[in-house]
Amino acid sequence: MLLSKVRLHAWPQVLITLCLVWLCACADVQASSSPVPPAELARELEKPVLAGSGRLRWLGIPVYDASLWTEPLFVPERFGAHAFALEIRYARSISGSILADASLKQMQALDLVPSGRHAAWLQALTGALPDVKPGDRLTGMHLPDKGLRLYFNGQLHKAIDDPLLSQTFFAIWLSPATQEPRLRAQLLGLGT
Fold it and tell me: Average per-residue pLDDT in the chain?
C-alpha cells in the first residue's frame, strides 16, 4: 500500500519532467529547422529570408506549394521595386503552354497587360515556362532593373529581360487585387 502511494505522488513529477523534455526537443527541432533558401537565390539576392509560404488548391486538389523569399527590407506594397524570388513546388503535371496561357490570363484579369504586348508576352512566357511534373521546383526571380529569371529544379532555365513583364507576372501572386488573396497573405506572412 505504501508503494502505491509513493507511485501516485511521483506521477505529477514524472509528467512534468516528460513535458519539459518534450518542450526542449521541440525547441531544438525548431531551432535546427530554420528555412534554408534554395542555392540559386544566393546568386541574385542578398541575405534572402522566407517571408511566407502557402498552398494553391483548385477544387480542393493541391496544385503547388509556394514560398516567397525576399531581402530583409522588402515592402509588399512596392514589391516591383525589390528583388525577390517565388519558389513553386508542383504537385501536378502541367504543360508549359498551359502555365503560360493561365499566367497571361491572370495578368489580364489584373488589367496590367499593356495594349500591344499580349502576343509578345505570351510568346515569351511560352518559351520560358517548362512542362512540370509532381516534385518539380520552379523558382522565379524578380530583378527590378533586369527582369525575370526562371530556375527549373535549381538550374537557370530562362531569362526574360523585361522588367515590366516580370513585375506584372509576379503581380499574379503579390498584387492586392490577386485572384488568390489567401495565398497572397500566406506568402507575405500575414497569416490565414
Answer: 85
